[in-house]
Design brief:
With about 300 residues, the protein is of the alpha/beta class. Helices cover about 45% and strands about 20% of the residues.
Amino acid sequence: MPKVSVVLPIYNVAPYLDEAFQSVLSQSLTDIEVIAVNDGSTDNSQEVIERYASQDSRILALSQENQGLSGARNTALRHATGEYIYMMDSDDILSNPDAIRICYKYAKQNKADFIFFDGDRFLEKDVSDCISTIKRTHLVEENKKYDGEYLLNLMLDKSNHNSAVWLLLIDHNYLNNIGLSFYPGIIHEDELFTTILTLSSNSIYCLKRSFVNHRVRSSSIMGQRYTTRNINCYLTVADELLRFSRAPIIHKFLRYTLSKVFYTAHVIPFKDKPPVFIRALKSGYLRYIGIKSVLAFWLKS
């Protein structure tokens, strides 16, 4: 059994794969497996995957028709055998050659369900802005066990919530025990996955280090302009979280999230606004969105 399974979903990222693979395969912790899932790429990503797989037996190369990020990660998780899981974006770079070793040792010694750490973001020249934070470890202490509900409450209160799974190292047994996988067919799937992952745990630890350079590009989900798909996927996340629990923390999370979603969504064309607003209205989500965001959604130019 390898110590860590690195989950690498891949879709049309051939120009970035060399850096991603090299940053993983050069890690000082060598007892790892890399599960590379080609999710129906139409560029030469498969060629790059096969080249690295032929050179390093730690790589398991899988290929499937396009199922989206959730589907690719779920495929990788079904094949993962490591003690811990790290889910890396295929255009990112591990910035420290000791990153996986340090994370594994820290999670193991603390018997953590999962640990979280920081990252650094770099924008490609065609991306002008990105406001979400990937630094939050300054809000908590190292070597201290945190309960998931307390931690999520804290991050929401500090307006520093982040759901990115590539800032986590997760105990594989814990993941299996709670039966968690990624909801298929949506974007913003991390919001659902990480929220349930967090609220199901009473053993979360912080590591005050930055280990990943996260690339933001115009063709990535993070770099794209808001559309009705963004809103509908967030509304699906809301639906599923309320199925998971109706505890006060869920309502707090939805107020935090949906108010921002609809405020930001003022940029979509006016003709596209009624269907998503009606869906939110029918679902009873206006109480989470708030009057300020509703007015911005309809009136802000």
